[in-house]
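debug: dumping io for the single-chain case to check the tokenizer round-trip. Nothing else runs in this session.
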Amino acid sequence: MRGTAVVVGGGVGGLATALGLRRIGWETTVVERAATPADAGAGISLHANGLRALDALGVGAAVRAAARPQYTGGTRTPAGGRLARMDGAARARTGHTDRRHPAGGTAPRAARGTATAVPARGRPGDRGGPLDAGPGRVTVTMGTAQLAADLVVAADGVGSRLRGQVFPDHPGPVYSGSTVLRAITAHPVRLSSDFELTWGPGAEFGHIAFADGRAEWHAVLDSPTGVRHSDPLGVLRRRFGDWHDPIPALLAATGPEAVLHHDIHELETPLPSFAAGRIAFLGDAAHAMTPHLGQGACQALEDAATLAAAVADAPTVEAAPARYDAERRPRAQPVARAARQAGRMGRQLSHPVAVAVRNAALRLAPSRATVRAVLRHADWTAPNLG
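debug: decoded output
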């Protein structure tokens, strides 16, 4: 079966979907209104399931070449006390067999490519507008232009306009109570691990190392929505200045202009379906989640590979989105719930007694059990797209 598709949204999920559909022989158009991705200048960390999805899409080797494997790391307290340790050997003992990247890899998002790097027609500046789902075709209106296709993929992010049209009774995204500031260091920083998280009362700080020696760091803070600072780096240096090394060094190696600041929104109310006729929802448009498991991009990549496989195998175009929904919703929505729970256990604990109990439990937990808990969401088999 061959056909045409319009993918609304040129983020990770949208571009991956274009790759998958093109791989199975579909003519695909990507529409994206932003000239530059909002997260350009940040890093991306992929667990093994994300890399397996990229393998299915045919670009896994290229991403691995630009990435640094994550073998060593763990979780600490602000004073530097070790809460949990993870290493390559421990991951191997859990049965995760992707030895090249047992927990995944990291790379700058700027290296991921843009719509022009996808074998599909990119339309910068377009924004997916009203839908007209007529017999056999779906039409997306963008200003005075219209694009008709056999399939429309809504990959237009957490604030998806298409989701609002198809599911007008859904409450939409809610603010998680957290805001994230992040950046890539201007030069290499001496680090003792590939990745690390530090949990303090109402705050989390983490870093991931890149192949060139630089690192991305992120700071997740409890904050009212919409709060912005004239000197965000100065605020962070005061907030985290007495936390353990290498946190002060990471902040010192960062230029003020490099800091990105985004409030974190999620779909706390699950969508009733990831499909509606010839329309499929994926990525943040379908299951926006908090970043505490590092699974947001991975789940979007799983979506893309699964949708392409469903389109390739379904007897009709109409059957493909329903098949995709049946496979993806039971997988992605529990991951979103687990990410929310992980945030509550980590950064969102602020009472000293609750923090002490959590820290004691983590220290007493066997390393193998901790690794299994972190990596269990990466247990996913990618479809074969040929």
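debug: round-trip ok. The chain has a mean pLDDT of 84.
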